[in-house]
Amino acid sequence: MEVDPDVKASVYDASLFVHPEENPQWVVYTGDGYECLQGIDVSEHQGTIDWQAVADAGYRFAFIRVGYRGYGEAGTLQEDAMAVENLRGAKEAGLFVGTYFFSQALNEKEASEEASLAVSVIEKSGVEPDLPLMYDPELIRDDQGRANEITRDQVALNTKAFRETVEASSSCRADIYSNLPWEHHYFDTATMNSFDIWYADYEPQPQTDLNLWLR
């Protein structure tokens, strides 16, 4: 995909991402000036988690889903059933804790509703997150994805509304979750430059040239 030259470029050298022999499932960055931490992201789909075992295995952080909007026309808002337990457990085990909300918002009003639910779940847990609350809009290819026809302009408006609601009602910082198709087709240049981005990639080295966090 063509890289937008107006989006801030990555400072990483892709050749310096390696898989260590002792933990080949991990990816670490061996360049100077950066520390590479290993973490996980979880939701109710992982069931009950032994958070001390996670910490003992060398993981340093966790992003925890706090809620989601359902597929289909209704788009019902739902709290993740394990969110509070996971937030408390990860924090008690000494991990850095971040959160995310799986969005199917069609407009700014719905994005703001999602942000309000996310903040309320975090507050209910009593945990002060160390890492941002990530806005995670996604297309659904194998089910009734209600936001599958969303435009780039509407994504920008939704993302802005989510951040404004989060930051007006909590001490959390809101940023965005993305992958290669989203950064090229759905997030505009202004959004990419004004948010930190948790970037999903499942190749040996990152496929993007943009300045992102890596998953």
Total strand segments: 10
Query: How many angstroms does the end-to-end distance come to?
Result: 20 Å
CA-based gyration radius: 17 Å
Enumerate how many helices there are, as a single number.
Answer: 6
Shape: globular
SSE ordering: EEEHEEHEHEHEHHEE
SS-based structural class?
A: alpha/beta
Q: Low-confidence parts lasting 5 or more residues at pLDDT below 50?
A: none
In short:
The chain has 215 residues and is an alpha/beta fold.
Tell me what the structure shows.
- The chain has 215 residues and is an alpha/beta fold.
- Helix content is 30%, strand content 20%.
- The chain has six helices and ten strands.
- Strands 3, 4, 5, 6, 7, 8, 9 and 10 form an eight-stranded mixed β-sheet that branches. It has a two-stranded antiparallel ribbon with strand order 1-2.
- The chain starts with 16 loop residues before the first strand and ends with a strand.
